[in-house]
Amino acid sequence: MLKDTLLKDYQAFIQMREALGYSGVQGTYYLRPFLEFCSDNYPEKPGTTKEMVDAWLLQRPFNTNATKSHVISNFRIFAKFQNAMGKVAYIPDEQYCLKVEKYQPYIFTDNELLILFNAIDSVPQHFEAPNKELIVPVRSFKVLW
Question: What pTM value is reported for the model?
Fold first, then answer.
């Protein structure tokens, strides 16, 4: 159960989101459970702290890094809202978001392309895929190496 101050802040936050044209609770799925965790485990604290954020994140596993980043983003927005309302709230920084490796494309060598196209040109007939041997091959195209 949310204590009065966090509940009022949460309700004001949802109203602000709606006033700005966002769906009130859409996208804040993890925010209420976090605030309930804070109320249950830190009832004496008036705002949110780094200790609270760390403790909640440790007990709450996420399926993907993207989900965790989304949750941290919601915490950050709510904490900025609380600070703007004159409360003291910890704003999680970038250290909480895991860096996702950018996709590194693989560029085939000429020899690898030759092997690939030869394999494609060698597709045999198969009763479950009629005409596959006519559709898949690339030998009708001129490959310049």
Answer: 0.61
